[in-house]
Amino acid sequence: MDPSDDVQIRRAAGTLSCATALFVVTGDALAAAGGMAGARFGSLQALRDDIELAWGFYARRRHAFRIAPPHPAIALLNRWTALMRDGSFACTSNVDGQLQRGLFRADRIVEAHGAIEWLHCARNCGAPVFAGGLVDVAVVPATGRARGSLHGCPACGGLARPNVKLAGDEMWD
Questions:
Q1: Which end of the chain is more exposed for a tag (fewer CB within 10 A), N or C?
Q2: How far is residue 107's CA from residue 53's CA, in Å, rounded to a whole number?
Q3: SS3 state of residue 171
């Protein structure tokens, strides 16, 4: 380690010792296994072209996220949070719910690209985002397609979709 690194670490520690809250910004480095990066269904058009295949993809990702252990760094962040008078706040580009499963307070997390456990109207009817994590979608293992009924929008009755940012997505642009 370069001696200047030690000085910078000591300065950072001194600054943190005066802080009353921790603000954490995370992204892919703290993402759960089974991530969404580079996914074929990362566009709005793919969702519209084959809703059953897209929902099958999201259902498998959601399951992978739920069973993935929290990233080890989250335990460290929790220890630092415990030392802060006002706790911590977080902003993440991940949609996997790792911070919540890692015991960060959900009401102090901003999920910039949405969250796979929440849904919104695929028609963009204006209904607010709604909980979808309590109902799972069945997937045919051989095809990866969703089977049975899919989630509906409580406002207009149209199909719902995961509340995640997709390429070309007018909900987010």
A1: N
A2: 32
A3: coil
